[in-house]
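hey so i finally got around to running the thing on that chain from the lab meeting. sorry it took forever, my laptop kept dying and i had to restart like 3 times. anyway pasting the input first so we r on the same page abt which one it is
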Amino acid sequence: MKHLFSSGEVMYQKNEKQLAEGVFKGDYLEYDEVEPNTSFKCVGKLDEQPAEIAFMLSDEDFDGVKSRYMFRILMQSDIFLSNWKSYKVSFTDPA
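ok and heres what got predicted. didnt touch it at all, straight out
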């Protein structure tokens, strides 16, 4: 399921993250549930090139994200700006 970043998150650049490969600016996240083994996908641009990033949350940040998810106060930036245990970048063709 697609989950858009809110206008406030975009305005305050909470949809941007510095990675080793450059600055990634997310358009939306894709996920169904928030579980320890959930692979999240973020679609956006890495240094202005269309890309997707698949990532998993770090163990230390998962509990906080899960709590906000259960209380229905989870923002997409809570997931995106958390620490990741791993990630993989895939460049995509422009739509």
